[in-house]
Specification:
This protein is of the alpha+beta class. The protein contains 5 helices and 16 strands. It has a domain of 182 residues: Glucose Permease (Domain IIA), CATH 2.70.70. Helices cover 22% and strands 23% of the residues. Strands 2, 5, 7, 8, 9, 11, 13 and 16 form an 8-stranded antiparallel β-sheet that branches. It is elongated. The N and C termini lie far apart (103 Å). 31% of the residues are buried.
């Protein structure tokens, strides 16, 4: 008849399927709600339960622990060899008071560097110059903590290997290096200190296989030596030539030439004691 609809078997079957689907969806939603309401298992309690206790959180990032930028990596010069940072180029008049890897349970484990001390012992080397062990880029200048004192870190490219390592000079009395400065082997970058009176005067010297500045990390570790290298082995495996670094020699000559010339600014306008120079004449 016109205007009337009949429930054919096909329509009845379709309606039945829709009803079953709706019931199934409701059951699944109910089950999911019950699962979410159950307490979290012990293994996931820290994820879904309360916050992790502060005591179990990792320590905050230490000052100086920063990845070198692409620009810094491109500037790192190739070293022509390594020499002693104190005493003579061959390490005369100093000795290693605490060699790399020396066990020191009182301080937490094995030493990650070496402690270079004047042969007179105690504070007889206080204020003596600390030299760059190799040609490098200054990537850190600062004081990570009072116990570390003033620290300078240089980045070097190993000769013939194109591998970057760093040398760290710690407990300084004075640091005269500038961040971003290129220094030649033998350049004075600071003076021997006591880390704010925490120790007798000496230089804590490290060699680090890393492209991060890692000033402030522990100087003693319980197991292994982290990524620290034996500084004495580094000096022995990559000895410096028996001549001054040509880069440092030229840099000093350019500085001397600049100091002998008059600056564009009249001397009367310069602060008292200022040496007139033209910065563009430096390398």
């Amino acid at each position: 008849m016109s205007g009337k609809r009949f429930l054919t078997p096909l329509r009845l079957f379709t309606l039945g399927l829709l009803g079953v689907g709706a019931i199934a969806a409701g059951v699944i939603a109910l089950l999911n709600t019950k699962v979410d309401d159950t307490p979290a298992a012990a293994a996931t309690a820290g994820i879904y339960g309360q916050d992790v206790p502060p005591a179990t959180m990792p320590e905050k990032l230490l000052p100086g622990y920063v990845l070198l930028t692409a620009h810094q990596l491109a500037l790192v010069p190739e070293a022509d060899g390594f020499q002693s940072p104190c005493g003579t180029a061959q390490g005369g008049f100093v000795y290693d008071a605490q060699p790399f890897g020396t066990p020191n349970p009182a301080r937490g484990g094995k030493h990650t560097g070496c402690d270079i001390n004047g042969i007179g012992g105690a504070d007889t080397d206080l204020g003596l110059p600390v030299h760059a062990a190799a040609r490098g880029l200054v990537v850190y200048v600062g004081e990570p903590s009072p116990a570390w004192g003033k620290v300078v870190v240089l980045a070097h490219r190993l000769p013939g290997e194109n591998r970057i390592i760093q040398t760290l000079y710690a407990h300084l009395d004075k640091s005269i290096a500038r961040l971003g400065q290129l220094v030649g082997r033998g350049a004075t970058i600071g003076t021997v200190g006591t880390a704010n009176g925490n120790y007798k005067a000496h230089l804590h010297f490290e060699a680090i296989a890393s492209i991060c500045t890692e000033a402030g990390l522990p100087a003693y570790v319980e197991n292994g030596t982290m990524n620290r290298l034996d500084p004495q082995k580094l000096l022995a495996s990559h000895p410096a030539p028996a001549v001054p670094d040509p880069y440092e020699t030229i840099r000093r000559l350019r500085g001397r030439e600049a100091a002998l010339q008059q600056a564009d600014t009249p001397a009367a306008e310069l602060p008292a004691g200022t040496i007139p120079i033209k910065p563009t004449q430096f390398l």
